[in-house]
TrEMBL record:
PANTHER family for this protein: ABC TRANSPORTER SUBSTRATE-BINDING PROTEIN, THIAMINE-BINDING PERIPLASMIC PROTEIN-RELATED
One of the GO biological process terms: thiamine transport
Domain of life of the source: Bacteria
Gene Ontology MF term list: thiamine binding; thiamine pyrophosphate binding
Name of the protein: ABC transporter substrate-binding protein
Length: 366
């Protein structure tokens, strides 16, 4: 799918509007970043949210900057640990930028792991999805779904309760370790909501009970699910973000065929956030990366990867979204029951899940 190359924010950047007082114009920022010569990212699989094409477009736009991609399969907790572990390291193992789950943004700020920076399009990012000081800001969102290998699964599950059926023995996996991965932590929340738990600590507890039952039934597979494990048959059903499932479906191109199902209940929408490491060895390249991601071009790049970019409403209002990108998304009604948990609800759920997984479920996901 061709992404528009129009960079509508360039004029705003050139004027300095929306940027902190100390910030450079876009040209000055690009020149400073070029002198640094490198950007170190972390936890950005190319199939996730269209990141492969987004990174390629950034490199084409700024060829003087080498993109150093660290640990693409890391979880949000791993990203924060990478910052902690490299506080005094200016080498290539120190990440400049982070893409982490919503609940991890405030944690990173509180620990002093991030630095403030407001992109030029700051005012078009919803207030509830950003730190007022600019330490973190929402980038995109999706909903948790079932990604099903229909070569191996005859009856495709439609809701969480279906996953407990005997026909799904050794079939169901999470797309991350629920002790560290935001995607997996929120999957436990979604299961808990489907069992009647309120969003927060209660959903975490109910979700743990569900996964204990799933594990006791012999249906849970303690393997981190991804396109390869689905194709190999090791994890015929993976609970993952809708955009990951849709990207895997495209990558596998029918071998095997995949069906992506948004469950009838327990639909959780997850917002991820961007941040710049407080110890970024290449701070100007990090800022330039943020400016690119939050430009129209960068936002449409995520949309091409099936993610709803955080500036979606602004893009839609200005009529800059190609119809082909809108047509490629799941139908709007799939999102009607989606719950957008608050930071407090996510924090309560996260504490329950990460603290109780080993004791309640006892499955070592890896």
């Amino acid at each position: 799918m061709k992404i528009s190359k129009a960079l509508a924010c360039a004029a705003i950047l050139a004027s300095g509007a929306g940027l902190p007082a100390h910030a450079q114009s876009l040209d000055e920022l690009a020149a400073a970043a070029a002198k640094e010569g490198m950007l170190s990212t972390i936890a950005l699989p190319h199939s996730w949210c269209g990141y492969g094409d987004v990174i390629a477009a950034f490199k084409a736009k700024y060829p003087q900057i080498t993109v150093n991609e660290l640990n693409p399969d890391a979880g949000s907790a791993d990203e924060l640990e990478a910052v902690r572990a490299n506080k005094d390291n200016t080498g290539p193992q120190a990440p400049d930028v982070l893409d982490i789950g919503f609940a991890f943004g405030p944690q990173a700020k509180d620990e002093g792991l991030t630095q403030a920076y407001k992109v030029a399009t700051w005012d078009t990012i919803p207030a509830e999805a950003k730190d007022s000081d600019g330490h973190w800001y929402g980038d995109y969102y999706g909903v948790l779904s079932f990604v099903v290998n229909t070569d191996l699964v005859e009856n495709v599950p439609q809701d969480w309760s279906d996953l407990l059926k005997p026909e799904y023995a050794n079939a169901v996996a999470l797309a991350g370790d629920p002790r560290a991965s935001n995607q997996a932590i929120l999957a436990v929340m979604a299961a808990g909501l489907a069992q009647g738990g309120e969003a927060g600590e209660a959903s975490g507890q109910k979700g743990l009970e569900f996964f204990k039952a799933l594990n006791d039934a012999g249906n849970f597979v303690p393997v981190i699910g991804k396109a390869g494990t689905i194709a190999q048959g090791a994890t015929p059903i993976v609970i993952a973000w809708d955009y990951n499932g849709l990207a895997w479906r495209d990558t596998l191109a029918g071998n095997p065929p995949l069906e992506i199902v948004v469950p009838k209940s327990g639909v959780v929408a997850g917002v991820y956030v961007q941040a710049i490491s407080a110890y970024a060895p290449q701070p100007n390249a990090a800022k330039l990366w943020m400016e690119y991601l939050y430009s129209d071009e960068g936002q449409l790049g995520w949309l091409a990867g099936y993610c709803h970019p955080i500036r979606f409403n602004d893009l839609a209002a200005r009529g800059v979204i190609p119809q082909a990108l809108l047509d490629a998304l799941p139908p709007a009604e799939a999102y009607e029951k989606a719950v957008f948990p608050t930071l407090d609800q996510q924090a309560g759920n996260k504490a329950a899940v990460t603290g109780g997984w080993d004791a309640v479920v006892g499955a070592n996901v890896q």
